[in-house]
Amino acid sequence: MTTLLFYCAILFIITYFSIRKFITIAPQLGLVDIPNERSSHQKPMPRGAGLVFGLIFLLGIVFYDLDTFSENKYTFLAILIIYICGVVDDKFTISAKQKLVFIVLSSVIVYFNGYEITNIGTFFNISVNLGYLALPFTVFAIAAFTNAVNLSDGLDGLAGSISTIILSAVFVIGYVYHDNILMVWSAILIAIILAFLVLNWHPAKVFMGDSGSLLLGFVIAILSIKSLTYINPASVLFLAAVPILDTLVVFRRRIQRGKSPFEADKNHLHHILNNIKQDKAFTVKMLISIQLAFSCMFLQLHKQDDALNLVVFFLLFSIFFNLFDPRARRRAKDARLRKKYARIKYENKKLKENKKLKENKIVKEEIIEELKEDIKKEIKKDYEI
């Protein structure tokens, strides 16, 4: 463990200074993000830091344990394909369908290297085995999560922070059950992401780009599948809570508006929260807190009954899902406005009453003053007589 921590500290330093150097040469490489209507930044920013930390991750795994590399060479090939896909997208921009082809290809490769989902849980003493559906389900799960992480990369520090929290939970599972791959891969990736976050936290100096977000999503997906050896399948949902929530909210809003669920827009969770609060740092912290809560629940419930995990997850998930539902927010906003209007109406009524009372008081005082003057005059007349 001490050796691993020392190794991760070295990788942190290497990554930090490598990305700082990358920031200076990114414009010359043509890796600059130009703001558009969906951007959260106002000026051109270096992007593609994933090109740097992705390479450091791959080399870091190889140099730490050559035996692990030889046992997982096909998995490394799949990760390399995802990495190259991301780099090409950052440089030249490729379509979502083209990226999906690379992700599906890589998912099939890792499936045949042992990273497969063959069982989705035991419910009421009935084990649900996938059989021939294991391959398409595994490919779907990996592709869906990889895209979910990619979609969440919309605010400074968001995707990196969410990934770090998920990887920390995976590291704990690896440590508890003595799984070297889970522990080492997650620890190395955490160290690298933390170095990146120093330069990506608001206000960011660099973006990870698709080369980073696709790699993070893919690696986390295959590590989550490997952790199924030690945990009950349904508990993995807690691990991927925020990416799943973000994807479903986005797809729902796009479908409601008659658009393709894959069409880019500003309907992500971070857009919704930022529109409400107008505070990017608050939005990131809010989503980090949600993911942290779900990850802690994952560690508590990973050995519990799958049915219980599903009930707890969907109960909490439905609360957050409806919280970000635009219709629910509109109803809540309308209720607040009605309440505010009623309060203003009541206060106006009170002001009018107070004004009337005040006017009456002034009239009474004037009458009293007039009476006093009359009395004084009468007294003066009596005195003169």
TrEMBL record:
Mg(2+) binds at N150, D210. It is a multi-pass membrane protein. The chain crosses the membrane at residues 6-27, 48-66, 72-88, 100-117, 123-145, 157-176, 182-199, 206-225, 231-251, 282-301, 307-324. Its main location: membrane. One of its GO terms (cellular component) is plasma membrane. Its cofactor is Mg(2+). It comes from the Bacteria. It is found in: Cell membrane. Residues 341-374 form a coiled coil. InterPro entries: Glycosyl_transferase_4, PNAcMuramoyl-5peptid_Trfase_CS. One of its GO terms (biological process) is lipopolysaccharide biosynthetic process. The keyword Aminoacyl-tRNA synthetase does not apply. GO terms for molecular function: metal ion binding; phosphotransferase activity, for other substituted phosphate groups. Keywords: Cell membrane, Coiled coil, Magnesium, Membrane, Metal-binding, Transferase, Transmembrane, Transmembrane helix. The keyword Transmembrane applies. This is Undecaprenyl/decaprenyl-phosphate alpha-N-acetylglucosaminyl 1-phosphate transferase. It comes from Arcobacter acticola.
